[in-house]
Design a protein that fits this description.
single chain, 171 residues, alpha/beta, five-stranded mixed β-sheet
């Protein structure tokens, strides 16, 4: 084995070792010991999007992020929860993002805005109340209906991730 092959092998081994050192995840975050569960109600859809299941999709994304990826349990009622998140879907925009040579949109962008708050049951005031936005594009020429639904799902996942990250950044 010549010197350049050994050097390449050593560099690869170092990169492999370092990649394990810089991995970071909020899964199993240091949630306060007295917080064991969270209540996540369905957020009303005030966006007039025409998509009847946005509230369901957002609820699934939030449950997945707060419950399935942490040690929190899902409470069935707000009175039984140590913490809760609540809000409403405020806005849904579906607009052209990229126009082709024939002056027809070939990519559309979905943007969803949710106004939400996160609060501990024992606190009188929410830890935060703010707006969260998520967006994604889809190809209107390929499959416009499924494309829009997939883009909406991606935008809702972004919103759920950002809400979770804002909650845990204060833990």
């Amino acid at each position: 084995m010549n010197f350049s092959n050994r050097l390449a092998g050593l560099a690869f081994a170092i990169l492999l070792l370092l990649s394990g050192c810089i991995s970071y995840s909020f899964t199993g975050t240091s949630i306060p010991s007295d917080v064991n569960d969270i209540y996540i109600p369905f957020f009303p859809d005030r966006s007039q999007s025409g998509l009847g299941d946005l509230s369901d999709r957002l609820n699934r994304a939030l449950v997945n992020r707060f419950v399935n990826q942490s040690r929190l349990s899902l409470a069935d009622e707000q009175q039984n929860a140590d913490s809760f998140v609540e809000g409403a879907i405020q806005n849904y925009i579906n607009r052209p993002f990229s126009v082709g040579g024939d002056e027809q949109a070939n990519l559309n962008e979905i943007q969803i805005t949710v106004r939400a708050s996160f609060q501990y049951a024992n606190d009188e005031e929410p830890l935060w109340t703010k707006s969260f936005s998520g967006n994604a594009t889809y190809d209107v020429l390929q499959n416009p209906v499924d494309g829009e639904l997939e883009a909406a799902e991606t935008a809702l996942q972004q919103i759920a991730n950002n809400m979770f990250n804002d909650a845990v950044s204060n833990w």
